[in-house]
Amino acid sequence: MLRRRVTAGAIGAAAVLGLALGACATDNTPEAYDTLTEQNFLEGCTNYYFDNTDDSLSRTDNTVEPDVTAPDQSTCECMYRVFAGPNGIPINSDAAPEGYTGPNFTDLNSDLKDDPQAWDSLPAELRDRVDACGEGGSSTSSTTSPPSTTGGDGTTTTTAGG
User: Fold this and answer.
1) What does the pLDDT read at residue 72?
2) Hey, how many other C-beta atoms are within 10 angstroms of the C-beta on 53?
3) How far, CA to CA in Å, does 134 sit from each of 4, 12, 138?
4) Which residue(s) pair with 24 in the sheet?
5) Element (H, E) at 96
6) What is the distance between the alpha carbons of residues 11 and 44, in angstroms, rounded to a whole number?
7) Which helix (H) or strand (E) holds 82?
8) What residues of the chain score a pLDDT lower than 50?
9) Residue 30's pLDDT is what?
């Protein structure tokens, strides 16, 4: 069980690294969780490119990097909901609620590029919810999930709100 949790945490860390540079302001800092942020996250997490048509995402058959084993789309969508959902983490320091002391999504993404241990800076409850995604569990707590849309290729994509 511990090995699964470590693996799920590593998957979550890799998924956060998938933010890349999209959904960003001029200084490359995302200002909100939106479809472009979700697209970049899913592309980095699943290793597949996504088409974004009218704020609806659909996975293509084109991989970002050859010969990479990545989590499935539903696992990555679950992890994104953990971060972007109402009990997730703020997208950047400007979006942090008063009194919030944990990392924000943008800084965590940056920190993970140099230090995989930055994952430990997330509150344990969030790490547990990401781990549950990797184990096929649900990421939701007592909140409702964002609506889902079906892409042109039949994949279901969650449109996350902030």
Assistant:
1) 95
2) 10
3) 8, 8, 9
4) 30
5) none
6) 11
7) helix 73-84
8) 18-26, 139-162
9) 81
In whole angstroms, what is the distance from residue 31 CA to residue 60 CA?
26
Please give the DSSP secondary-structure letter assigned to residue 28. S
Please tell me the distance from the alpha carbon of residue 156 to that of residue 162, in angstroms, as a whole number: 19
**H/E segment holding residue 158:** strand 156-158
Helix (H, G, I), strand (E, B) or coil at 49: strand
45 token code pair: 């997490």
The one-letter amino acid at 2:
L
Say how far apart CA 84 and CA 75 lie, in whole Å.
14
Dihedral pair phi/psi, residue 103, rounded to 5°: -75, 155
Query: How many C-beta atoms lie closer than 10 Å to residue 2's C-beta?
Result: 6
Pairing of strands 56-63, 48-53: antiparallel
Q: Residue 136: CA atoms inside 13 Å, Cβ hemisphere, count? A: 0
The residues spanned by each domain of the chain are 2-158
* pLDDT tens string 40-70: 999 999 999 999 999 899 999 999 999 999 9
Distance CA 47, CA 42 (A): 8
Q: What DSSP character marks residue 22? A: -
Q: Could you tell me the two tokens for 5? A: 């949790």
